Amino acid sequence: MKNTMRTLVASLALVAAAGLAACANHEKTAAADTKMETKAVNTKCPFSGGEAKQEITSTCHGQTVAFCCGGCKAKFDKMDHAKQHEVMAKATGH
Prior knowledge:
Blueprint: H1 2-37, E1 53-60, E2 63-67, H2 70-78, H3 81-92
Antiparallel strand pairs: 1-2
């Protein structure tokens, strides 16, 4: 009985360790994906034409667009998706 319990405990420990390793890898991948996702597709504000600041952004259709100021970002955030799509097209030149 003691050997069976030891085997069971050892097996559970291995499964737990494997699960933690998989979780750690997933977090690293998610962090890398987030970093890629936050890079803006533009360098100029689609509203003012001024320099876009990488810390003032919104996301639309899986792409990040940067703005020159919080006012331009707020204007974008209030738009419906169709208008946001138009702005994204202007920002990316497509």
